[in-house]
């Protein structure tokens, strides 16, 4: 049983600590995405797993073996880089075969492996081309091929889709997911794009300032965010966070509106953050809240409206066919069932809405 | 209807006339630009043309101004090529320039790469120290070089001529700047693929800086091919002269045989021309990139 285990992983540059005691276990065949804003330590974590960064503290275990002091090549990993890192002076065949450079295989065996990988990636007809003659997506396939040919225990991806245009990115995302199903290997994928994280991951690790904020399935991090950071980082547009205080059976919002929140008791007067996603805050005649539309963004199926509610701007959704216009006064309906409550000082979740 | 057509025609011809005028103005500017470039070209080519012209003159005509020889002759070429010494000097120059170029390419890029891609204590100081040697003129260095050669017994030998140029500060600087353009991802990918540091440098980084290597090769080759002062000082036996030193010896204090010197010079530009033709597609790019990065 091959596992990847990070234990109390720490990274320091001089006196600056950039990773604080990272603990993570990745199971065989699992697809884990590390996501967070830039500078959160996700790439550093990945590079430490790869052996490209020194480890300041803690251990990394791959397949039951501590690899802290092993060279990258001895860790049984392969990595795909953001700018592909395929060599411009070599053909596709040589690029893919480069990963086998140190493997003790005969030339025929190597070629067979290369052909097999190229076939999986649909690159067979491009094997004798140079990277300059390939499109961005094809280059990324070559980079993935070079990783695949080594048949590693762990695939590491460092923002591999960032250099592709939006359409190609969606397509490659799908291909990586299919590839994962096919090869069934552990994959660790770093991205700052929460959509990529949600769509690819079996589990998402959300990081900020060198700390793990939450580890969970895409559904968990979306529906049960552990804190306000996760709540606002996952999901677009962002979750609304409104000032409120407890009333015992629910909360009283900053403007005095009381909302019953089932299944939780918050001491009267306790300050909390009341979180509600825009899709749970709908333009509605029942009107728990009301305000003036400042901007309306039609998205087709629905319209995103920014509404000034008693001096606070909230994001809500309205129907796509009969959208309100800027300046309209509208009512917004919501249900306490969909609410997320966070401690207003620490930002930690007090309870999470229905899963 | 006819009136409207006429109006349209007039408007069209107006536009055409205006476009023509603009074109005339543009071509006038173009003309001036070309004339300036032409003048520059003439100035550049003049010495070369004069060299060829002088090499075709008889000794009595050498001091007369005039590009076209009155009685053109190939006598000088016959003399120089039949003089056994010239061929020897040519070979000396070729061997020395080639070995020096290969050595400098190897060491300059190795040091440049190390300074660029490895983090170590004192890296910056080492770089500055290497760079600062660029500020010392050759004329000042020849005395220490000479004393060094004397104590090591290198005087009057190939090694003595070559050793100062086997590694160059300029090359280190140029290569370091170029290696900056090689993204670390390439090196790290190779590291994961299991290459050692030397292999990464040789198999991954070096092919990616070929333009710089070509440019550096031309600079160093030409520099050594035309080097005069140091080879003159370090060699005493005419057998070891390089071309420039040998050519200069085609005269004595009383009488300088310009026609022979020019003939030798004309022949000696041939290898540099060939070298340049081979590498020219790299050199322009190399110089431009060095300029941008520097």
Plain-language structure description:
Chain B: It is a multi-pass membrane protein. Chain B: This is Carbohydrate ABC transporter permease. Chain B: Its main location: membrane. The complex is a heterodimer of chains A (355) and B (294). Chain A is an alpha+beta fold and 355 residues long. Chain A folds into two domains: 4-226, 3-Layer(aba) Sandwich (Rossmann fold), CATH 3.40.50; 232-351, OB fold (Dihydrolipoamide Acetyltransferase, E2P). Chain A has helices at 42-50, 92-98, 107-121, 136-148, 166-183, 194-200, 218-223, 228-233, and strands at 4-13, 16-26, 31-35, 57-62, 65-66, 77-80, 154-158, 186-191, 203-208, 211-216, 240-246, 250-253, 258-260, 271-276, 282-283, 289-298, 302-309, 312-319, 329-333, 340-343, 349-351. In chain A, the strands form four sheets. In chain A, strands 6-7-8-3-9-10 form a six-stranded mixed beta sheet, sandwiched between helices. In chain A, strands 13-12-11-14-20-21 form a six-stranded antiparallel beta sheet. Chain A has a five-stranded antiparallel beta sheet with strand order 15-19-16-17-18, with no helix packed on it. The two termini of chain A are 31 Å apart. Chain B has 294 residues and is mainly alpha-helical. Chain B folds into two domains: 2-55; 78-293, Orthogonal Bundle (MetI-like fold). Chain B is 76% helix and 0% strand. Chain B has helices at 2-55, 75-82, 84-117, 123-132, 138-152, 158-162, 169-179, 184-192, 197-208, 210-225, 229-234, 243-248, 258-293. The longest helix of chain B is centred in the first third of the chain and has 54 residues, at 2-55. Chain B is flat. Residues 290-294 of chain B have low confidence and may be disordered. At the A-B interface, strand 6 of A face helix 8 and helix 9 of B.
Number of helices of chain A: 8
Q: Which pair has the most extensive contact?
A: A-B, 23 and 15 residues
Helix coverage percent of residues of chain B?
A: over 70%
Total of domains of chain A: 2
By helix and strand content of chain A, what is the structural category? alpha+beta
Task: Give, in spatial order, the strands making up the sheet with the most strands of chain A.
Answer: 6-7-8-3-9-10
Spans of chain B with pLDDT under 50 lasting ≥5 residues?
A: 290-294
Characterize the overall form of chain B. Answer: flat
- Order of helices and strands of chain A, N to C? EEEHEEEHHHEHEHEEHHEEEEEEEEEEE
> What is the count of β-strands of chain A?
21
Mean pLDDT metric of chain A: 90
Helix content of chain A: 10-25%
Give the class-level CATH name of the largest domain in chain A: Alpha Beta
- CATH fold assignment of the largest domain in chain A: Rossmann fold
Largest beta-sheet characterization of chain A: 6 strands, mixed
Q: Write down the oligomeric state.
A: heterodimer
Query: What is the overall silhouette of chain A?
Result: elongated
**Strand segment count of chain B:** 0
């Amino acid at each position: 049983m091959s596992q990847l285990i990070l234990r109390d992983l720490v990274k320091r540059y001089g006196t600056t600590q950039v990773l604080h005691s990272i603990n993570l276990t990745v199971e065989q065949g699992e697809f884990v995405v590390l996501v967070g804003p830039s500078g959160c330590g996700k790439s550093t974590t990945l590079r430490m797993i790869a052996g490209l960064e020194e480890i300041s503290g803690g251990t990394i275990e791959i397949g039951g073996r501590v690899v802290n002091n092993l060279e990258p090549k001895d860790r049984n990993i392969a990595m795909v880089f953001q700018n592909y890192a395929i060599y411009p002076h070599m053909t596709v065949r040589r690029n893919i075969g480069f990963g086998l450079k140190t493997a003790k295989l005969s030339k025929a065996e190597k070629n067979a492996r290369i052909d097999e990988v190229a076939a999986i990636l649909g690159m067979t007809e491009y094997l004798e081309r140079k990277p300059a003659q390939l499109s961005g997506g094809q280059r990324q396939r070559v980079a993935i091929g070079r990783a695949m040919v080594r048949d590693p225990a762990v695939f590491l991806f460092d923002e591999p889709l960032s250099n592709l245009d939006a359409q190609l990115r969606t397509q490659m995302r799908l291909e990586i997911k299919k590839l994962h199903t096919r090869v069934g290997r552990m994959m660790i994928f770093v991205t700052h794009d929460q959509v990529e994280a949600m769509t690819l991951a079996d589990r998402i690790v959300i990081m900020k300032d060198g700390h793990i904020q939450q580890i969970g399935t895409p559904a968990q991090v979306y529906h049960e965010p552990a804190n306000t950071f996760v709540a606002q980082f996952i999901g677009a547009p962002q979750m609304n966070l409104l000032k409120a205080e407890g009333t015992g059976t629910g909360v009283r919002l900053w403007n005095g509106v009381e909302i019953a929140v089932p299944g939780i008791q918050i001491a009267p007067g306790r300050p909390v953050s009341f979180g509600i996603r825009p899709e749970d805050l709908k333009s509605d005649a029942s009107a728990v809240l009301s305000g003036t539309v400042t901007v309306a963004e039609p998205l087709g199926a629905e319209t995103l409206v920014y509404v000034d509610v008693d001096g606070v701007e909230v994001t809500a959704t309205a129907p796509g066919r009969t959208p309100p216009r800027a300046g309209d006064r509208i009512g917004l309906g919501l249900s306490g069932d969909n609410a997320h409550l966070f401690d207003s000082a620490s930002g930690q979740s007090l309870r999470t809405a229905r899963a | 209807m006819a009136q409207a057509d006429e109006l349209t025609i007039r408007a069209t011809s107006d536009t055409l006339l205006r476009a023509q005028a603009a074109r005339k103005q543009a071509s006038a500017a173009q003309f001036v630009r070309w004339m300036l470039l032409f003048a520059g070209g003439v100035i550049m080519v003049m010495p070369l043309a004069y060299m060829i012209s002088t090499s075709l003159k008889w000794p009595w005509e050498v001091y007369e101004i005039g590009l076209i020889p009155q009685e053109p002759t190939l006598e000088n070429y016959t003399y120089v090529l039949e003089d056994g010494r010239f061929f020897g000097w040519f070979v000396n120059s070729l061997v020395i320039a080639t070995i020096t170029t290969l050595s400098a390419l190897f060491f300059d890029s190795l040091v440049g790469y190390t300074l660029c891609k490895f983090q170590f204590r004192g890296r910056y100081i080492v770089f500055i120290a290497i760079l600062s040697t660029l500020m010392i003129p050759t004329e000042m260095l020849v005395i220490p070089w000479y004393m060094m050669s004397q104590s090591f017994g290198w005087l009057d030998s190939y090694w003595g001529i070559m050793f100062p140029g086997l590694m160059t500060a300029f090359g280190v600087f140029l290569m370091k700047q170029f290696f900056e353009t090689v993204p670390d991802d390439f090196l790290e990918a190779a590291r994961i693929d299991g290459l050692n540091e030397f292999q990464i440098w040789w198999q991954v980084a070096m092919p990616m800086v070929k333009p710089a290597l070509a440019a550096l090769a031309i600079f160093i080759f030409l520099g050594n091919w035309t080097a005069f002062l140091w080879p003159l000082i370090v060699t005493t036996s005419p057998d070891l002269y390089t071309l420039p030193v040998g050519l200069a010896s085609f005269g004595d204090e009383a009488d300088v045989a310009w026609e022979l010197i020019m003939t030798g010079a004309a022949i000696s530009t041939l290898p540099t021309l060939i070298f340049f033709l081979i590498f020219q597609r790299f050199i322009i790019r190399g110089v431009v990139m060095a300029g941008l990065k520097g």
